[in-house]
TrEMBL record:
Biological process annotations from GO: folic acid biosynthetic process; tetrahydrofolate biosynthetic process
PANTHER family attached to this UniProt entry: 2-AMINO-4-HYDROXY-6-HYDROXYMETHYLDIHYDROPTERIDINE PYROPHOSPHOKINASE
Protein name as catalogued: 2-amino-4-hydroxy-6-hydroxymethyldihydropteridine pyrophosphokinase
7,8-dihydro-6-hydroxymethylpterin-pyrophosphokinase domain residues: 5-132
Protein family membership: Belongs to the HPPK family.
Pathway: Cofactor biosynthesis; tetrahydrofolate biosynthesis; 2-amino-4-hydroxy-6-hydroxymethyl-7,8-dihydropteridine diphosphate from 7,8-dihydroneopterin triphosphate: step 4/4
Top-level division of the source organism's lineage: Bacteria
NCBIfam families xref list: folK
Taxonomic lineage of the native organism: Bacteria, Pseudomonadati, Verrucomicrobiota, Verrucomicrobiia, Verrucomicrobiales
Length: 162
């Protein structure tokens, strides 16, 4: 199944962190593909948080979603993300599973599609670059339609940089 992964970094060499994460994700699926990087304002983060670099990737995955989440969290920690932290504090790397095919998944550790992805330009604009016509459960239209709607509302900075 196709798995969407959000990547973000707002501490240290953000471009390098995303490049290393892309390499790690390609180790899970050599056919992984990625959007451009976007400079984005922090959303729901503590005051004074630095801007993010964000992008979205997509992989083909046939294993356990719980195992994928665990590996992603272990990789985040290997890049300096603390296990115990304040909500949305600055971080060297943030990886999120955004969707798993057309499936709805609710478990103690996973809620897919990501419950806030349709509200976030830093997810929807890069995702529209990868798969504009895709329909994801919970979104009112296609990925591109949702991204355009968010763009029309304005809001925090989300600028393609690559």
């Amino acid at each position: 199944m196709q798995i969407g992964i959000g990547l973000g970094s707002n501490v240290g060499d953000r471009a390098r962190e995303l490049a290393l994460a892309r390499g790690w994700i390609r180790g899970l699926d050599a056919g992984a593909h990625f959007s451009s990087e976007y400079e984005t304002a922090p959303v729901d983060c503590p005051a004074g948080s630095p801007p993010f670099r964000n992008q979205v990737g997509e992989i083909h995955w046939s294993g356990s979603l719980e195992a994928l989440l665990q590996w992603m969290q272990e990789y985040e920690r290997s890049r300096g993300r603390r296990s115990v932290r304040r909500k949305n504090e600055p971080r060297t790397l943030d990886l999120d599973i955004l969707y798993a095919g057309r499936n709805w998944v609710q478990s103690p550790r996973l809620d897919l599609p990501h419950p806030r992805m349709g509200e976030r330009r830093f997810v929807m604009e890069p995702l529209a670059e990868l798969c504009p016509g895709r329909r994801i459960a919970g979104l009112p239209g296609t990925v591109l339609e949702t991204a355009n709607w968010l763009r029309g509302r304005g809001g925090p900075l989300c600028r393609r940089i690559e």
